[in-house]
Amino acid sequence: MEYGAVHALKEVSLQILRGEFVGIMGPSGSGKSTLMHLIGCLDLPSSGSYFLNGNDISTLDDTALSLIRAKQIGFVFQSFNLVPQLSVMANVGIPFLYQNDTTVDKESRILNAVETVGLGHRLHHLPTQLSGGEMQRVAIARALAISPTIILADEPTGNLDFETGRSILSLFQKLNSQGVTLIVVTHDEFVGKHCQRVIRMRDGRIIGQDHHDIDS
């Protein structure tokens, strides 16, 4: 991947298996954000290929990419990205606005996702009535609701205090133990220690990988 004359990623070769919990770590400018954008189908590589569920993403047009994002990739952001005027239930249902699949029981999926993150008692609350940790749980439920191939989290504990961040990481580990594939982009070593595998980047390259034994 390159921007102008600057190569953001160089000779990156990577495989992530279904059901893994993977961290991508590196300093600012290391290429981890660019890699996240590629994995999340937000950008296309200027060369090389990216396969998701056997499909070569690098050959798809914008419409096809939007459909992939809507149905296969759940996003969790540092800033939560909740709509303040909408309830928890409505926020979690936002991804379904980009789908046109009448066979999906959207309400059931939304309720299941909210229950999974432990917020069944907050269904009709607004984001302003929630704590930071609860807002991040709503964001995770929103990602879960579409039953994605992967959940991609960008600095998911960055705006949380230590104890709240630890509870979010415990939730991630619980979800992963249930078969959810998780990819977390972070600069925080504490977050990295909760991942089964950490991919380390510098100057647009993968410079190493760490493997951790995680108790589910």
Give the averaged pLDDT, no decimals. 89
Number of domains: 1
> How many alpha or pi helices?
7
Overall strand count? 10
Q: Which CATH-level-2 architecture? A: 3-Layer(aba) Sandwich
Strand content: 15-25%
Please bin the fraction of helical residues. 25-40%
Strand order of the largest sheet: 6-7-8-3-9-10
Please write the string of helix (H) and strand (E) elements.
EEEHEEHEHHHEHEHEE
**CATH fold name:** Rossmann fold
Find the CATH superfamily: P-loop containing nucleotide triphosphate hydrolases
* CATH class placement: Alpha Beta
Assign an overall shape. Answer: globular
**Secondary structural class:** alpha/beta
Give the N-terminus to C-terminus distance in angstroms.
35 Å
Low-confidence stretches: 1-6
Largest sheet at a glance? 6 strands, mixed
Rg from C-alpha positions? Answer: 17 Å
What secondary-structure arrangement, pairings included, does this model have?
Layout: E1 2-3, E2 6-7, E3 21-25, H1 32-39, E4 51-52, E5 55-56, H2 62-72, E6 73-77, H3 88-92, H4 106-116, H5 132-144, E7 150-154, H6 162-177, E8 182-186, H7 189-192, E9 197-202, E10 205-211
Parallel strand pairs: 3-8, 3-9, 6-7, 7-8
Antiparallel strand pairs: 1-2, 4-5, 9-10
